[in-house]
Amino acid sequence: MVWGPPRSDAELVAFLEARTTQGPDSNWLYSLPRQRRQLFGFQDLGLIEACERCETVELWMETEPNAQLVLIWLLDYLGLQARTLGIVLRHVDASLGETEPARLAECKFPGVAINDHHIEIASLAWGAYRAPTPHAWFNLLSRDLSILPQLRRCVLEMLEELPGRATGLGASELRILELISAGYEHPFEVFPHFKQRFQRRVFGYWEAGALLEGLALAPVPAVSGLAEWPFTLEMHNLRERYERYKESRLSLTALGRAILAGADDFSRHNPIDRWWGGTRLTNDRLWRWDPVLLVP
Questions:
Q1: Is the preceding omega at residue 230 within 30 degrees of 0, hence cis?
Q2: Which end of the chain is more exposed for a tag (fewer CB within 10 A), N or C?
Q3: HEC readout, 16-32
């Protein structure tokens, strides 16, 4: 949800509907192991049909922005049926994938039955994220979002990934420059899987590779020293290329140093063309964020 052009409404609906001709990346069932699909009789069911066959249904959504975006999408899709199905939302405040199973079993995450207010706020937020400008998303900050406890943080973290008013870079791009400036010179040393070091939660492994390439391969780069690209699965599968990538010795260019000093703007020198939710960011239409306002 946090990267690339948005899927169309039709694609999103088809993803959660009964499986017909959808491919492996285009239907929710493929996220379940085949044995589990067979065990529960979910072979070709849509999400709502599957929920109807269950005694209880709970949503356990992690705190990171991508998980929160999936949550508001699901609640918007389910609509009032979420209430009639008796779905419970667990207020998770831990990283499920990184918590030991024994420790996770001891956690007591409070659960609440989904009601109309959950659906209202989720639908409002989902529509705002899908809008062609970030204005509606920014305006969520003036709303009471506490019914979905992690949503306000998600709103702020996504806004911070818009181009900065002074730098033309999002928060994760800027953090990569800061880490290189601090002496971390190999690509994987500036990736977000070092969570305490990276301090940003929006993007993951593959997105970080794309961000670094954007900084290093631009017409006027902010980073030098990247020895291999593109950052694809094919590159990972070729040992020599992968090793060259890992051993790249990164450094800041004059532009990179100027950006960190607050003296220059990446977008003044380089083309911008990327998606943020439903907003396409280009040099002619570059919505910028700073800690207090959103400006075109």
A1: yes
A2: C
A3: HCCCCCCCCCCCHHHHC
